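step 4 of 6: structure.
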Amino acid sequence: MFELTAYDGRRRVRGSVYLSIGLSLLAAMVIWVYPSFEAEIDLEGLLAAYPEPILQVMGVQTMTSLAGFLSFELYTFGWIIMLGLYLAYSTAGTIADDVDRGRMDVLLSMPISRRRLVAERFGAMAVPIVGANLLPPLVVYVGAELIDHPIAAADVLAVHLLSIPYLFACAGIGLFASVIVDRAAIAQRVALGVTFALFLSESLLSGTDAEAVGAIAPMRYYDPNAVLLEGSYDLIGAGILVAMTVTLLVASQAWFRRRDV
Amino acid sequence: MAAEGAGMAAIKLEGLTKDYGEVLANDDVTFSVEEGEVFGYLGPNGAGKTTTIRTLLGLLSPTAGTARLLGNDVTDEAQLLAAKRRLGYLPDDPGFDETATGRAVLDLHASLKGDERSAELLELFDPPLDREIREYSRGNVQKLGLVTTFMHDPDLVILDEPTSGLDPLLQQRFNEFVRAERERGLTVFFSSHILSEVRKLCDRVGIIRDGRLVTVEPVESLLDRSGKFVRLHAAESIPVDALEIDGVHGIESDTGPSDGTEYAFTFTGDVNDLLAALQEYRLHDLSIEEAPLDEVFMRFYDDTDGSERNGADLTVGPGAASGGEDDV
């Protein structure tokens, strides 16, 4: 068991280290600019100057605290949008690319069931998902201390831990695209499009009559603002994200089991 | 040629059909491969060989019919898995992770299906293990593929055009290897579009064309019937009736710019008769070669002159009768 996950996981380690470093740099930059930002700019005024839809899309609630600032500059932008899209994209390349490049024949000639193959390949996505969350929390916590705007360690930890089921759900969207589309490039575009559309549907439609549409968006169940500003951890949301991930995985397995490759 | 259907078949196809809508890639293909046999699956490119193989491996689901691998129904997942534990497969153009090294690929294969003999195989086929696959030549990919196909010491191997990409020396080594494995009891099913390759290794041959199995027979009888390609360059022209010997087909002559006349024809008769008939003529040159596969198809299996192919040609040759035991 897990031979393929171990193999894939090892091959993803290096990229995940780079990803973690890149995100840490982003985190450090956001924290570094905050003091001058706070001192020289009328943040309330700036906030009022933005059109409402932009604030809504970016999840901006307040800029007058580091937590609020990080929440949209780093977590909404870096985690919800960038990492979410990256994982959907990257996972969409797994199965479809194997089929596309003729590697699937070799893999499936070995004694491994199609269901197990899909699950193991998906499992290896834990490496970038967890890897991306290893270094940045340290940088955020220490950085906040250094500029004298401390954030509770538990909140920093929670905002990263709760992002893990969110990122798995995004990867699940990619996985499903990967089994239904033959060509990797198309699967990846489909995954990007769907994930971004879900993000928009959740952020733009919230507060409108069509708010219910956003219920299928993973973005609804991960809220960095709530964690960092109010210290409230949405464990039910995390549970829903896990359920979404499992549903997408099982659906992908069922589909891949039946199709010709 | 043991009796069939006693559960001894390593591969058994019955009415296998794969319909893609616009293409009928396999049409009612039925044959069996016995345990311990080397079976060649022969046909021109695009005839449906790979479709049969991929259906056998459970990669494609048949539109109709059944396929069994080592007694296991390939449409049943658990049975297919059991069969794959004893199976080695080398695809037409084996795909490995481009950015992995050969060694990493071998390690993955070893972890998933076991490794009984990769050390020995690496001495024989020797791919550059420490390089990444993307730097591999086609031949090196094929060598790595051969190692991964045989490393777990399978009972049955399925090889799709195994010698493509191998240089002549390695082809030779591959042939010797397959013969030795056959002595050990391995069953081999391999596809090819090259008759000479098949004749060196196979016990029996199945021929597929346009998705339909044309014949299954022992390789000798096929060679007897496929005949030779004769080219002769006579000093003076030879009367046509002098060349009307049993087994001469499709004679063409050419009085070219050089002196004398050139003749080319396919010959399925006794070479001695031919030589006797030519004895009284002065020749500049004479070559007798194995007929190219395309020629064999043209002469025996072309549907357009189906009436002819059912004539005398098909029954010519001493081995022809023994080829009839498999349903075609």
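step 5 of 6: annotate
 - Chain B has two domains: 9-223, 228-290.
 - Chain B has a mean pLDDT of 85.
step 6 of 6: archive
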